[in-house]
Write a structure and sequence with these properties.
- The chain has 121 residues and is mostly helical.
- The chain contains four helices and two strands.
- A two-stranded antiparallel ribbon has the order 1-2.
- A hairpin with a 2-residue loop joins strand 1 and strand 2.
- The two termini are 44 Å apart.
- The relative contact order is 0.12.
- The mean pLDDT is 87.
């Protein structure tokens, strides 16, 4: 699709200059950035491992414990259906917990680092 708008004129560039590679490396090696990375990893890695273990338990039980998974709880609702729906529930809970963790712990630290980097300190 073409437009009839004239091409932009080559005036002075008024966009702010970005940080240099050296500034990025300096921030990456700082203790504050290491603390931010630790705060993220100490939350994300254990929850990821726990969720994968929970999912694998569901898959293994579906394959090898068919009798148990087929146990009717009420009506046509069996253990496998409840476990399957619990997978969705835990996914949303983990996302909600991470959102809260990021808003309370990660975002303020990241914003402080970003503002200092943009200020050129």
């Amino acid at each position: 699709m073409t437009t009839d708008a004239p091409p932009p004129q080559g005036g002075p560039d008024t966009s702010p200059a970005g940080p240099t590679t050296e500034q990025f490396v300096e921030v990456q090696e700082s203790a504050e950035f290491g603390e931010l990375r630790r705060a993220h990893r100490s939350f994300a890695f254990p929850l990821t491992i726990a969720f994968i273990a929970w999912y694998l338990l569901y898959v293994l039980m579906s394959n090898y414990a068919g009798g148990f998974m087929g146990t009717k709880l009420f009506g046509n609702i069996n253990v496998a259906l409840v476990f399957g729906l619990a997978q969705f529930l835990t996914t949303f809970l983990i996302a909600w917990f991470y959102s809260r963790h990021a808003a309370n712990k990660l975002d303020p630290k990241a914003a402080a680092i970003k503002s200092r980097l943009e200020a050129g300190e």
